[in-house]
Amino acid sequence: MRWRKAIALVLIAGLSASLAAGCGQAKREENVKVRVGEVTRSLFYAPEYAALSQGFFKEEGLDVELQTTFGGDKTMTALLSGGIDVALVGSETTIYVFQQGAEDPVINFAQLTQTDGTFLVARDKPAAFEWSQLKGKTFLGQRKGGMPQMAGEFALKKQGIDPQGDLKMIQNVDFANIPAAFASGTGDYVQLFEPQASVFEQEGKGEVVASFGVESGNLPYTVFMAKRSYIDKNKETIQKFTNALFKAQKWIAEQPPEAIADAVLPYFEDTERELVVSVIKRYKDQQSYAANPVIDEQEWNNLLDVMASAGELNERTPFGAIVDNSFAERAMRR
């Protein structure tokens, strides 16, 4: 796979200190900076924003610097080039790197979401939706080889639809431009993440008619990952990062959508609170947020099935080759 150049990095220096007593004198310690690149900004990643807004990363002594890298290829390029330390992106990207024979493979160490996060949006609201209505229509899909597109095609096939034969499939629109393309008139149906899907409903530009997450089943959809070399040199940091994530996951599970919305709203300043509450509820109801950071082997095998169905898998990557659950398991034992 050809990785395109990474986007410019946003480096904001911010050092916080804590005082600890030692040998009768105050000792100043700096939080460890961790540069995180997320593949997109989405309410699908609510536990990540909760870990930031609720101070769970800081409690672990980490200064997490978050940037949005817009697309799996750009995110992985940033990670491989050292522009970021940790990536939040689909775990399929680690398989692509592994299939290339990387000497320093990318390791999945903590799961964030466990279903696909996209929804099928129709331009016109049907009286009653049936998947067969897509046949012969133009479908504005996600990037070929990316997890959203593969999960989407997997779901379509389950419904008896040949994505390439029964639809006019459009896959050449850049990830960040898909909503604008649909809004301008391209496609009868589009595959969108939240909150964009609900925004289109609110603006009368489309109607959510189905969930690809429900149709494609559980899989390690979005995962925190890092290069093996980084993990080997920063095991304590990775452990603290995973500890903070698990705190956030438990917090998300315990809180109502309204409280979660208030926690993540600073990351979605242009989105109305009522819409955020609705989206969070939608994701919680379909159990998209992983309950803990452990990457399940059965879900991993489902991921491989999805990739194989899309023709993107050279061979089935062994679970233990690029998955390290040791940090997640320790976080859960605390």
UniProtKB/TrEMBL annotation:
Keyword Signal in record: yes
Keyword Signal tagged: yes
Keywords for this protein: Signal
GO cellular component: periplasmic space
Superkingdom of the source species: Bacteria
Protein location: Periplasm
Signal peptide positions (record): 1-20
Family: Belongs to the bacterial solute-binding protein SsuA/TauA family.
Protein's recorded name: SsuA/THI5-like domain-containing protein
Taxonomic source organism: Paenibacillus darwinianus
Lineage, highest ranks first: Bacteria, Bacillati, Bacillota, Bacilli, Bacillales
